[in-house]
Amino acid sequence: MTRALTRKGEATRARIVVGAAAEVRERGVDEVRLEDVLARTGTSKGQLFHYFPDGKEELLLAVAQHEADQVLIDQEPMLSNLTSWPAWLAWRDRLIERYLAQGVKCPLNGLLGQTGRRAPGAQAIVTGLMWRWQGAITEGIRHMQSTGDIAADVDAERAAAALLAGIQGGVLLLLSTGKIDHLEAVLDLTIDSLRATART
Amino acid sequence: MTRALTRKGEATRARIVVGAAAEVRERGVDEVRLEDVLARTGTSKGQLFHYFPDGKEELLLAVAQHEADQVLIDQEPMLSNLTSWPAWLAWRDRLIERYLAQGVKCPLNGLLGQTGRRAPGAQAIVTGLMWRWQGAITEGIRHMQSTGDIAADVDAERAAAALLAGIQGGVLLLLSTGKIDHLEAVLDLTIDSLRATART
DNA sequence: CCAAATTTGGACCCGCAAGTCCAAAAGCTG
DNA sequence: CAGCTTTTGGACTTGCGGGTCCAAATTTGG
């Protein structure tokens, strides 16, 4: 039953997801028309519903997962190696660069807000992303504590939560105002603040 | 031309805006049906299009402005009087309380993300809100600097930007994950950090 | 090369919700 | 109260876009 999916089928499915993702980035989640996805990917209704029997909802979920994974991938290898201050700054630079380039086109922004109302699946994807993200930051802080670069009495989990929130807000403000200033301020001040703990 | 609007008319218009705002909070911006607003407010299509000739878009813009104003009002009188550490903490508590009570029902969340794409009017409303909000925080920091409670070498504008971003991200994470932890962490750590500058 | 399964194309259906229209009711002004 | 304007109700139109269906083409495996 669930078997099948020729190499060709697999390719088509992937093409649809990627095309839909692009469409979401350009028009926003709730402005996506299936027709446009079909046109962009050179596929037909039949194919779309063949690979995503539950239609739009299932497709958007696949897109969300795809984009969520991408968010973390884009931060590698820095995010998983926050083991020195230069590494932290390199990560900072990567974030700024990435979001500056991305500009207003945030694939997840629709999800973030609506997440509570939309499919519970979307909720899970976003929560999972945030959890992994925060976990990576926490690990970075812990590592810096092990080398004495951050004071041992800092609550790593809590500090990571604050930093993650700052990043999300910074991106949100970038989307609303078009300025990167907030994201920059958060990253610089938070990292400085962590750094300062060791000098006390 | 632009005259008119009897007392009764004014009342009806306001009733529609308030009802629509409630609807937006409950279902999300893009799930709002005009029909529901009419039912809830006991009005008819004729009335809605009479007071909002441009229909849904114009109505939602009015709602956005209404809610944006409310966000700041809800933080008063604390936000405008960040003149002592107890005052800052009272503000912190108000924010936590307000967003905890509000939970998933964020009137602006749809706006925040989609803002770039939606009516340029929405963009302006959000930007305006953020600007006023950040301005109030900046002023609070400056005041604390004048009394020596925050070091003079802190860049007030930049610190306020970071704090505002943290708050936005904290709220966003509250909406996605249902946990207030991030918002709490941001507020506590940021305020502590500002406080620490004076003790150096 | 044949039969079964998968893939593809696209015409068609259908419901929903925004927006139009107009006539009736209510309010204002002199 | 007479004649104007504003307000109200709700039936009707309309277009958009998601989802269905099925027959034709292609691929796969033996």
Characterize the structure shown:
The structure is a homodimer of 200-residue chains. By secondary structure, chain A is an all-alpha fold. Chain A is built from nine helices and no strands. In chain A, helix 4 runs parallel beside helix 7 (120-146), helix 5 packs antiparallel against helix 9 and helix 7 packs across helix 8. The termini of chain A are far apart. The mean pLDDT of chain A is 91. Chains A and B meet through helix 6, helix 7, helix 8 and helix 9 of A and helix 6, helix 7, helix 8 and helix 9 of B. Chain A binds a DNA duplex (30 and 30 nucleotides) through residues 4-6, 8-9, 12, 33-35, 43-47, 49-51, 55-56.
Q: Please give the radius of gyration of chain A in angstroms.
A: 20 Å
What is the overall pLDDT average of chain A? Answer: 91
First CA to last CA of chain A: what distance? 64 Å
Helicity level of chain A: over 70%
Largest interchain contact: A-B, 45 and 45 residues
Say what oligomer this is. Answer: homodimer
Poorly predicted tracts of residues of chain A: none
**What's the overall geometry of chain A?**
elongated
Number of helices of chain A: 9
One letter per element, helices H and strands E, the order of chain A comes to: HHHHHHHHH
The share of residues in extended strands of chain A comes to: under 5%
| Sheet with most strands of chain A | none
Using DSSP, what is the number of strands of chain A? Answer: 0
Structural class of the helices, strands and pairings of chain A? mainly alpha
